[in-house]
Amino acid sequence: MEDVQSRLDGRGVALDEVGVTGLRYPIVVLDRARGQQHTVAQIAMSVNLPHQFKGTHMSRFLEVLNEHRGEVTMNTLPAILQSVQDRLQAESARIEVAFPYFLEREAPVTAARALMGYSCAFVGRRYGGRNDFMLRVETPITTLCPCSKAISDYGAHNQRGYVTIDIKGQTDEKGEHRLIWIEELIEIAERSASAPVYPLLKRPDERHVTMQAFDNPVFVEDVVRNVAIELQAETRISWFRIHARNDESIHNHSVFAQLEGSPSTEEQRPTVDVSATAAAIR
Amino acid sequence: MEDVQSRLDGRGVALDEVGVTGLRYPIVVLDRARGQQHTVAQIAMSVNLPHQFKGTHMSRFLEVLNEHRGEVTMNTLPAILQSVQDRLQAESARIEVAFPYFLEREAPVTAARALMGYSCAFVGRRYGGRNDFMLRVETPITTLCPCSKAISDYGAHNQRGYVTIDIKGQTDEKGEHRLIWIEELIEIAERSASAPVYPLLKRPDERHVTMQAFDNPVFVEDVVRNVAIELQAETRISWFRIHARNDESIHNHSVFAQLEGSPSTEEQRPTVDVSATAAAIR
Amino acid sequence: MEDVQSRLDGRGVALDEVGVTGLRYPIVVLDRARGQQHTVAQIAMSVNLPHQFKGTHMSRFLEVLNEHRGEVTMNTLPAILQSVQDRLQAESARIEVAFPYFLEREAPVTAARALMGYSCAFVGRRYGGRNDFMLRVETPITTLCPCSKAISDYGAHNQRGYVTIDIKGQTDEKGEHRLIWIEELIEIAERSASAPVYPLLKRPDERHVTMQAFDNPVFVEDVVRNVAIELQAETRISWFRIHARNDESIHNHSVFAQLEGSPSTEEQRPTVDVSATAAAIR
Amino acid sequence: MEDVQSRLDGRGVALDEVGVTGLRYPIVVLDRARGQQHTVAQIAMSVNLPHQFKGTHMSRFLEVLNEHRGEVTMNTLPAILQSVQDRLQAESARIEVAFPYFLEREAPVTAARALMGYSCAFVGRRYGGRNDFMLRVETPITTLCPCSKAISDYGAHNQRGYVTIDIKGQTDEKGEHRLIWIEELIEIAERSASAPVYPLLKRPDERHVTMQAFDNPVFVEDVVRNVAIELQAETRISWFRIHARNDESIHNHSVFAQLEGSPSTEEQRPTVDVSATAAAIR
Predict the structure, then answer these.
(1) Of B55, B141, B206, C102, which sits with the fewest C-beta atoms within 10 Å of its C-beta?
(2) What does pTM read for this prediction?
(3) A153 and A68 belong to one structural domain
(4) How far is B221 from chain C (nearest CA, A)?
């Protein structure tokens, strides 16, 4: 049976990425408190394609994923990427794994407990023998408007917001990552807000977070700066991007602030990030 | 060229609905202030299919839509539905038209003006010679929690919420609808909230809405009841469903309340509405 | 601390549903092959609210969910609903649980195995002592157009489609459900299509499904009728709704067919289903 | 009334972007055939924020948008960006405008006409006195699998796919853009596919496109390469990114290929594009 994908291609156009996307798959990730956690991921996997080959063999991505089934962590990603690289004879391999991560949260006064989900993602890339790893954690927060509080005789508008922190860790020759825990990034995001968001609050807890938020008003700009100051001092990472968004309670649109930087440098160049456009279009 | 759709079918199964969906189309709707308004709709059109026919002719939905192009209003829907009925020789025809509707809103103190979009939908149905018409309007609002205000020494959590009002109007023999304006339903929804949501607010306006919300705390239950009292007294409608949702600022989930009823009767039976599931699944 | 929700309300408006929605939660469901399966759900829970009470106690939904944590199956739903009813002193309680369900599928020729996810949902309702249960299963399929095949000299357009089957089972006094397995509904949906959809296909498998689809052309109308004939003969259910959608490969919109009915009766009345509108609006 | 945003900030953290997002707004864009076209956009606007200021004045974005209301084209963007820059005293300003663009398409045999919508976006950026402009056009296409055709005795699986072309044009001192029309990018995308996708096809047209697709099988890799060859020869642009995705009819996931490059150079470096993750998470 002919292998059409292996036909030679004469157009002389090498491709950056060829792969599968929109793949829903159950995975197991590391959990600081419980060792591991079952969740469900949206996965994309790709490799580069040299100019001389007509196509790649898409089914092999599924085969590799199936062999490593269950285990998709910062420690197993390098092995998965290497399997993809070998199986598809590629110079570069890339995987994105987006998933909800659940933590049991305790209410601040009554200590009532329930699970809350956080949208997270791993983006791993292997180029030659080098591994590159990005972790994304989105943390919901409460933000209370400093301007509204300052100019009003009483009250202050507040709303649900989301802080998305992307970080890249350092990797050694063996591709081992010494990474920040998802839990740590959630804590940094919550410390930067007016108050955390909880899955379950009884009245004494609601009273507590209401006053906590009123006592700690922050603009979306403040949230990003508060996170930035902590990440700029963080030696375990090589790069970060911080995005905060408030779903304004007085408007039907949102406001946002964003910063890309690294611990080693203060440089903060404006970036054209098309991801928002992409999300808006899709 | 054979007309496969017209083949006879022996399975004896008549279908409730057969049609097109997910169709994006530019339309013109009635605008109380400006006469008419250009917007973009998501459209679904369908007919019933008698058991003896294998299939319907889907391209005809597009032909009808194209002939009536531009004009999709509560006044033209009956003609569109009749065209569909005739062209596809169907007993029943149905059309759903979901679209953003824009109003110029004035800030409460500075009178600064800007446009705000409201998600609306028409659902028209024709069965034999009878027309049935539903209007849906979703209005964003601000809600301030009465419990949070009552139990806290200062402040109160508030958030963006959405009130969705579905109504059915009365139709006469000629299929003419004497309907409530979209603008009227938006006003009812905003009167039922802690404060309206605006596209553009300067500081004096922000101060105003902050204190207005603090002075008018409402639960999601209150919002639905406030709307219900106005609709129960409304003689131009025959049926209503009210759904209010708060995107809680202290939680990462939402709370909602719902009521289905009619002006002529007080009966409020619990309904199993699978639309939320449908939305969740998709 | 005052219990504002328990204040008396004088508006005389009872509410059909009051509750939480958009709640993401990890659950365990029954798995015919493996006993049970970990997945992640989107959950909505609600109760009715008598006219004399101002509000319900939303945090109790989370408490109930947390107590039954993990176990959300057709067998545990009645207990969850009764807990909600008791805890919130409600006459009716309702829960929606939408989740991806994973099955290991075997390629038709090479028997290569990988997991595939199916969007499913439970909708349970308890009114007084009576339980009502709905199961929803969405199965992706391949459909090849009979018209395109008949009128073309070679080839035929085909595309990915989705069959959504909703069923209600019979419940006895103890609220026990004798239900069809998710796996059974997937098999019915796939038998009704031109060919099943697989997570992993090698070339001999791709050859097989290509010819299988070409040998079994079906319109979206055929898919619904094929499913209907099987469900009309199914004694374990009391009601069904079948919705099939083709994401047309020659158009940028979709076509659909829908039928609501029951084994005991042939009656197929046209229904006004606003769920598509709801999905379009959101 | 205090201007809290203008307070000095001592954290020494300058922000890349601060602004509004998720703003729905009716706009008018240029239309090659009809001069101009009304549509509805999703808009994001932002500026940089120097380290010494606490916040930006978000309401001014709405004021600028309102002043330029209606006219959002590649010709007016520089003026809008300059207004934003001036009004907010910023060094850099950015705007994203994502919108459906409608074209009347003619069926290939019967010449039946109907409108089809294409998802497009403008991304404009002004840094100091320099303007940067990106155009994004997503074109739905039909792709027929070369492998499936080659290995099967008859038939071949085909599906709906999407080609997304991003390009950057050259700008002169006055910020004038000499840009490719949206219509031109759609034509390039359709020439690169097995067959175009149409809004309305009668049977003779369906026969035509069925055989056209069978005669022109392409992998997703072929689509990107076909587009790349045309864009590499295009002198009006300075940069491009091509992304093609097939919503596989034999799988429940998609396959994609991507290439970033420019006419002036052959370099095609692998890029880590997080937009897919972003979309997956949201």
Answers:
(1) C102
(2) 0.92
(3) no
(4) 6
Is B124 contained in some domain? Answer: no
Residue C233 and residue D242: Cα distance in Å, rounded?
51
Shortest distance between the Cα of C37 and any Cα of chain D, in A, equals 20
Q: List the domain range (segments joined by +) for residue A65.
A: 1-105
Q: What six digits make up the tokens of A262?
A: 């690294």
pLDDT at C271 over 70: no
Q: Residues with Cβ < 8 Å from B173, sequence gap 6 or more? A: none
For A4, nearest residue in chain C (alpha carbons): C203
Domain count, chain D: 2
C157–D250: do the CB atoms touch at under 8 Å? no
Reply yes or no on whether the pLDDT at C203 is more than 80: yes
Question: What is the pLDDT at residue A267?
Answer: 46
For residue C71, the 8-state DSSP code is: E
Q: What residues in A contact D46, CB-CB < 8 Å?
A: 256, 258
Mean pLDDT value across residues B25-48: 92
What pLDDT band is residue B43 in, cutting at 50, 70 and 90? very high
**pLDDT tier, A278 (very low <50, low <70, confident <90, very high otherwise):** very low
- A15 to chain D, any CB pair closer than 8 A? The answer is yes
Put simply, the answer to whether A270 touches D48 (Cβ < 8 Å) is yes
Q: What is the CATH number of the domain that holds A68?
A: 3.10.270.10
Q: For D157-173, how does the pLDDT look when each residue is reduced to its tens digit (9 = 90+)? A: 999 999 999 999 866 55
Measured N-to-C along each axis, helices A77-87 and A59-67 cross at an angle, to the nearest 10 degrees, of 140
**How much is the average pLDDT of C202-206?**
97
* Residue D138 forms contact with C (CB below 8 Å): no
Evaluate whether A178 touches A236 at the Cβ level (below 8 Å): yes
Integer-rounded Cα radius of gyration of chain B: 22
- Give the ipTM: 0.90
State whether C159 and C94 are in the same domain: no
Is A203 an interface residue toward B (CB < 8 Å)?
yes
Given CB atoms, is D152 within the 8 Å cutoff of chain C? Answer: yes
Nearest CA in chain D to C247: D160
Q: Do C142 and D250 touch (CB under 8 A)?
A: yes
Q: What is the DSSP string of C225-258?
A: HHHHHHHHT-TTEEEEEEEEEE--SSSSSEEEEE
